[in-house]
Write a structure and sequence with these properties.
Blueprint lengths: L5 H29 L3 H5 L11 H10 L11 H32 L5 H10 L5 H14 L6 H5 L6 H11 L4 H9 L4 H12 L1 H16 L3 H6 L8 H8 L9 H21 L1 H9 L4
Helix pairs in contact: 1-14, 3-14, 4-8, 4-11, 5-8, 11-15, 13-14
Amino acid sequence: MVERRPLLTLLAHLVLVLGVIAVALPVYITFVASTRSNEDIIHPPMPMTPGSHLVENYRTVLDGTRQGQGSKAPVARMMWISLVSALVIAIGKIVISLLSAFALVYFRFPFRQACFWAIFVTLMLPVEVRILPTYKVVSDLGMLNTYAGLTVPLIASATATFLFRQFFMTVPDELVEAARVDGAGPMRFFKDVLVPLSSTSIAALFVIQFIYGWNQYLWPLLVTTDESMYPVVIGIKRMISGGDAQTEWSAVMATAMLAMIPPAIVVMLMQKWFVKGLVDSEK
């Protein structure tokens, strides 16, 4: 029998409401600012109701026809670059991690454990330690201001490799033997057995890695100097050129709202798989 405690229920709902307000209020303010003129924003107090410049502001930033200081690159181009980068990083990390974990678990070769620990140790290296050598390699290969420069150095993931390895080690040996008896080779066993079994983990990792790739700031800041190759996160920073009077805040806020849309869509579309991949008791 479930005991009813009205006071605890009320308290739980109050905490949830406060949490929603804390998360949603900044987004609402950003949306309101994106529909207002720059004068409304820089002269406080800013009205807290949507204005009449919504279509104008969003069309201006998407086309790259805005006035004022800072970058004027089309936000539509920036979002395309961010989308391509996020997809390549997410898919690349998953594919490489799956293959790496498969090799570490199901193949016997010299220094197999040493290879695993070499991969695992990279988890302990902060980004700052390897970012300058990586930049030097990318620069020497002529990959600055390119899609390859934005994505290739980020498509290997020790964390994902470790997670897939741990999951593959839980697959029963009887399943491996049954596949061998049926005449399945290593890659067929990988494609027809392991990948379907890993679908929920793949979905969860895809959401995490897509958002990771979309929100990249430090690495694109180093490897992109041409406006035509700015991802949207860098574009927002480049639009802010100085004081409030010099920055067209309505355009900045409109760009910020547009930048939130793709990650939100990915999370909403894959929420069920994402949660299942994290809490599935069989994992």
